[in-house]
Amino acid sequence: MKRILLLNGPNLNRLGLREPDIYGQITLIELESSLGDFAKDYGLELTCYQSNHEGNIIDKIHEADSNVDGIIINPGAFTHYSYAIRDAIASISKPVIEIHISNIHAREEFRHTSVIAPVTIGQIVGLGLNGYKLAIIALRDFFGEDERL
């Protein structure tokens, strides 16, 4: 069974409370539980981690290189300026998909640029929480193990 690490960055622990008109009303705990079940349906094991601290996310990326098969990351605001997270992703051999709940390209100007995207296999934006499911499916397809696709 392939293993996926889901990394959520700063303020995503506030899902369900923070700007529900943009991010929805489902909490991070509810989302992680639902995604764990969804991943199982695709023959994948999902581990979830959230941190508001850049160094913790970098440590998880480094650890992931030896204990998971792929990463889904919503770097939150780190998307736009964290060259340290970008370099951590570039330093590993596992496929990474960047995810954003809102369409960062349709929001404030400072959100339009991702320093993370160039070192990922793809980016999913603006599809709400369903973007996480699409990232799981995309990794499954990348692994080449899903006959349904």
TrEMBL record:
The reaction(s) this protein catalyses: 3-dehydroquinate = 3-dehydroshikimate + H2O
Pathway entry: Metabolic intermediate biosynthesis; chorismate biosynthesis; chorismate from D-erythrose 4-phosphate and phosphoenolpyruvate: step 3/7
Glycoprotein listed as a keyword: no
CDD domains, per the entry: DHQase_II
Any one GO molecular function term: 3-dehydroquinate dehydratase activity
Residues that hold substrate according to the record: 74, 80, 87, 101-102, 111
Pfam family, one: DHquinase_II
Enzyme Commission number(s) from the entry: 4.2.1.10
Keywords: Amino-acid biosynthesis, Aromatic amino acid biosynthesis, Lyase
Active-site residues (renumbered): 23 (proton acceptor), 100 (proton donor)
Cross-referenced InterPro entries: DHquinase_II, DHquinase_II_CS, DHquinase_II_sf
Origin: domain of life: Bacteria
Sites annotated Transition state stabilizer: 18
Enzyme type, top EC level: lyase
Subunit structure comment from the entry: Homododecamer.
Similarity comment: Belongs to the type-II 3-dehydroquinase family.
Role played: Catalyzes a trans-dehydration via an enolate intermediate.
Protein name: 3-dehydroquinate dehydratase
Native species: Bacillus salitolerans
Gene: aroQ
